[in-house]
Amino acid sequence: MRPSPRTDVLFAVDTALRPTGFVRRGHVWLQERGAGVSGWLGFAVAGSLDLTPLVGVCFRQYDQVCAALGVGIPTTPVVSKPLGHLMPEKPVWKWTFTPGGDHAAGASSLVAAVLEHGKPYIDRYAKWDALARELVAKPESLLDFERARKLAIIHVLGGNPGAAREALKEECERVADSTDVHARSHRAFVHRFEIAFPG
């Protein structure tokens, strides 16, 4: 059976990525950077052949705390951005591939953009201490639904469970009158957090 057009495109992208150190792991590509740090590359796929690249950074220590709390998916980036957001002029948000076409040129163009615009982002955030300081100083840079959880984990990894509990408490107060999915998820997370990190 012939692979789907999407599989063909992802194979071409994977081939173009090999010399860069990015290795496919399931639906994402990781670039090992040592000390439990990985560059991360994923794609939002629209239709069958439109790829929107996203770049980010993963940390093993962050994943370990998430696993202890029963949340998250391993190798989910702590921070990430669409590649187009990192391109200064006339950003390209998606790469469109033609069914049955030769995908090598498009894949090479995409990978060149990842190296030019995505790699500096990964380099900047691949140091845990610097990233943690920036996120604590600018919590508004995190999305509302993830802010308290990420800050709590960052504080725990920094040896400050009191600050972690304060971040969770603020979010509990913010969603006190809500019964939506986020509010219920947050309350469940707080319960697991209190069990894992009592005190």
Task: Supply database-style keywords.
199 residues; alpha+beta; 6-stranded antiparallel sheet; 7 helices
Structure description:
This protein has 199 residues and is α+β, with helices and mostly antiparallel strands. 50% of the residues lie in helices and 18% in strands. It is built from 7 helices and 6 strands. The chain has helices spanning 5-17, 60-69, 104-125, 128-137, 144-157, 161-174, 181-196; strands at residues 22-25, 28-32, 37-46, 50-59, 79-82, 95-96. It is elongated, with a radius of gyration of 19 Å.
Q: Which sheet architecture does the biggest sheet show?
A: 6 strands, antiparallel
The number of distinct helices, counting runs of at least 4 residues, comes to: 7
Q: Supply Rg.
A: 19 Å
Shape: elongated
Classify the secondary structure makeup into a structural class. Answer: alpha+beta
N to C succession of SSEs: HEEEEHEEHHHHH
Roughly how much helix do the residues carry, as a percent range?
Answer: 40-55%
Flag low-confidence runs: none
Distance between the termini: 58 Å
| Oligomeric composition of the shown chains | single chain
Round the mean pLDDT to the nearest integer and report it. Answer: 93
Q: Determine the strand fraction and express it as a percent band.
A: 15-25%
Work out the number of β strands.
6
